[in-house]
Amino acid sequence: MNYDIATEYISFSKKSIKKYLKLILDHYFEEDIYDDLINAYINTRYYNLYHHVSKRFEENIVYYLKKSLQDLNDDPKLKEKAKFMFRMFKYILSFDGVVETESARKLISEIKDIRLNDYNLIDPDFESKLYFMVEEDLIAKKDFLDSFDDKNFTMNYVKVKEHTFYCVLDHNIKFSKLYSEYAITKVFNSKSVNEQKLFVTYPIACIKALLDIVKGDFERQYIVDYIFSITEKPKKNKRLLRYINNDVIKEKLFLNVEYTDFKDNHEKVYELTREGFKIALKIDNSFLINEETKKLVKLFAFVITDEEEVYEKFKNELDILFIPNS
Fold first, then answer.
1. What confidence tens digit (pLDDT) does each residue in 224-277 have?
2. How far apart are CA 255 and CA 278, in angstroms?
3. In whole angstroms, how far apart are CA 249 and each of 56, 62, 255, 259, 280?
């Protein structure tokens, strides 16, 4: 399985919303109006592209939905269609999880009454059709997210500063008593296994970030390890990065690169930044403070270390995070 997880999820939500609106609006559905509204919705709801006008997530969305229609021409028919479609986005906010609702059936009943009383749209099967669509899509979203869950592993999120967490993968695999804890740990942290662990870590971290976004939380950030030996296998590396190759996820996930790897592969690191990935630089005792390295660290989202001695050495010189070994 190989997904750009966030793009897949957002694309599914977008298709679902269009499906609901086409059913609800019938001949009042207008493609051009829909395009303006859905772009404003996706950009606000998932990509957080616009300035916040309110602390309430749904109020921000409604503001930019309304703003997207401000240049609509004076054609009365278009204005009527736009008014109807904008009105229905109140319900889309519930169907897409922006606003919690106790009863989808109650909302669908309200929509039926609006269709009938205000627009003379009659369909005896409307309520059952829309309810089935919404329920089916909710199940499909859950199944999609659950498909990346691996019961053999648990992700621990270590808080390193406000809104910032370091992702530590642990296993739930039961080994024979013939193997010592030392031997198990050694194998689990070997180079080849560490590479494979990334294919568990990245989807789980991506899902975590995506669920934050779904709830309107754009502040939380996650640091995940990046094992540089994987760059020697370009197809494998591309497959790994594809999990998180989405603009919204790139704002929330940071690739942790060892300073020794950076020194040996700085062009590859710069290539990652050009592709939009954000880097956390993990320094050790080999790092030296001088004018060049002070400029260098400004290229990175975070400077981190897991060595207390290194943290104490540089904490007054650099904005550095201490992440103790788990």
1. 999 998 999 999 999 999 999 999 999 999 999 999 999 999 999 999 999 999
2. 6
3. 22, 23, 12, 24, 15
Q: In this structure, what token pair is assigned to residue 49?
A: 């592209």
Question: What's the CA angle centered on 114, arms 113 and 116, to 5 degrees?
Answer: 65
Tokens 């870590």 correspond to what residue?
201
> How far are the Cα atoms of 39, 49, 254 from residue 13, in angstroms, in the given order?
12, 18, 25
For residue 279, the SS3 value is: strand
pTM of the model: 0.86
Which tokens in the block code for residue 54? Answer: 């309110």
* DSSP symbols for 80-140: HHHHHHHHHHHHHHHHTTSS--S-HHHHHHHHHHHHHHHH----TTHHHHHHHHHHHHHHH
Domains along the chain?
Answer: 5-146 (no CATH), 153-322 (3.20.20.450)
Distance CA 113, CA 119 (A): 9
Which residues of the chain are modeled with pLDDT < 70?
1-2, 171-193, 326
Query: Residue 142's CB: how many other CB atoms inside 10 A?
Result: 10
pLDDT tens-digit map of 19-51: 999 999 999 999 999 999 999 999 999 999 999
CA distance 13 to 193: 35
Give the residues across from 155 on adjacent strands.
169
